[in-house]
Amino acid sequence: MQTKIVGVVIPIYNVEEYLRECLDSVINQTYINLEIILVNDGSTDENSLNIAKEYTLKDKRITLFDKENGGLSSARNVGIEYFSGEYKLKNKTQHIKENSLIEFQLDGNNPYNIYKAYKSSQAFNNEKDLTNFTYPNIDYIIFLDSDDYWELNCIEECVIRMKNVDVLWFDHDCTYEDNIKNKHKKTRMEIFDFKKECIITPKEYANRALSVGSRDISFGWNGMIDFNFLKKIKLKFINFIINEDIHFGIILFASANKIYILSQKLYLCRLRANSISNHDKKITKANVSEYFKDIYETFGENAKEAKNYLKAASRVTTALKLIEFFKDQKSENALAIKETFLPCYAKKALMIKKFKKDPLNLKEQLVLIKPFIQTKLPYDIWKFWQKIKKN
């Protein structure tokens, strides 16, 4: 029986070419007890929002939020906050018309400037249902990027394995477009050499990372999370940075007790230059994101330099947030994650030193980060060897 409710969060930004394939893979899942949140993050293309509305109209499990552009983190956080009951929706539509979209607006707390929320008229029996509409109580949460898609049994395979674990991590496969380099790289699951299903502790994950010479612990679309656990640790994605899944993954794993390893490739990741999580797209004054505009202008509209600064700034922000988190952590699992991963990501923050301009004034924060930088010689040698092999 499909008694557990799974919350699905899908950020949308200029993906009109791929969105139907993504949403078809969701609404046609073999596991049907889903609450699907679409978050249009200020798309500027012609049809992303229209396609999202089309699917919202025909599937009553979907709730669509339309908001100003704030980046991938903000869109994912809308889903987390909605499922956590942090938003109160007030119906703008007063009367139900058959086969129509019901409009809602946020009443009160609206940190991400959500313009409207939409729900199919199929989800309501009468006008009273409109005024009583509220967030669903979900058991698990999972994220999907809107230019990617799932195998149709993805959710079902996850749910049956979620009992007594905090996190499930599955493998993925990739399709490559737009002359993307580094095709057919090993996935992290393959690098970590997890070939069979198993349940591990965060300490065991850290030990495996050491043994294979990797410091990858990012987590965004990589699996399923127990939602009560996520609420308990009060974890969200850091806004206005890139590689936000590093901070999220480290704290998620450091806080967990048990992690399910599922080596099946259930997620299909589309690698392209203009993807929702790829920052190599061509930026111009016309298409620059609102949250990135000030940095872009500070660097004289030099997109490459501005993006590199954002990358460096993101590393500093990530390191500072991690240091703050680990300050009060004493569990064996958390300490293992800290000792294995924090020195690496603290060291990456030093990238900010090479910039003459520092509009976010982050260089002065390096004094807080430097005590956590340690030389991890085996890892440094491994990274050097990887560079040699590429050349």
From TrEMBL:
Record has Transferase as a keyword: yes
Alphabetized GO MF terms: hexosyltransferase activity
Keyword Transferase applies: yes
Keywords: Transferase
Residue span, Glycosyltransferase 2-like domain: 8-87
Domain of life: Bacteria
Protein name: Glycosyltransferase family 2 protein
Annotated source species: Campylobacter jejuni
